[in-house]
Design brief:
Blueprint: E1 2-3, E2 9-10, E3 17-18, E4 22-23, H1 27-30, E5 49-52, H2 66-77, E6 80-81, H3 82-89, H4 93-106, E7 109-112, H5 123-135
Antiparallel strand pairs: 1-2, 3-4, 5-6, 5-7
Helix pairs in contact: 3-4
Amino acid sequence: MTEDMTGAPREPGSQWYDQEAGPLVRPYAMTGGRTRPGPTGVRFDLIALVTLDPGAPGADGVGLGPEHRALIDLCRTETQSVAELAAGSDLPVGVVRVLLGDLLELGCVTVSRPVPPAQLPDERILHEVVEGLRAL
């Protein structure tokens, strides 16, 4: 046993546990020191939609870390955005992006991107369609 700053005995490994916050694990430990998702360098926008592929090998979470399994569990019920996954797992967005890169490479998830605003119909056209429907 070691002693803390007050001289009281402390259990080995207790310096990695905060009574109020829970276990302390640095983000780089969760990602293995990586800051970018996978060798393909996929970029996950905050609004990118992540869907679980339940038939994919590894989608059961066996052999994956607890953070990977948490993301899989969040995607199991419905498609979620990267921002929702970060909030739901209580992990930083950067960590979630790296972990999603791992899951994407394993084929556990698919990622779709929303339509860019430049490709959406012009608001004027939508108003004309609504007016045309009202005229019917």
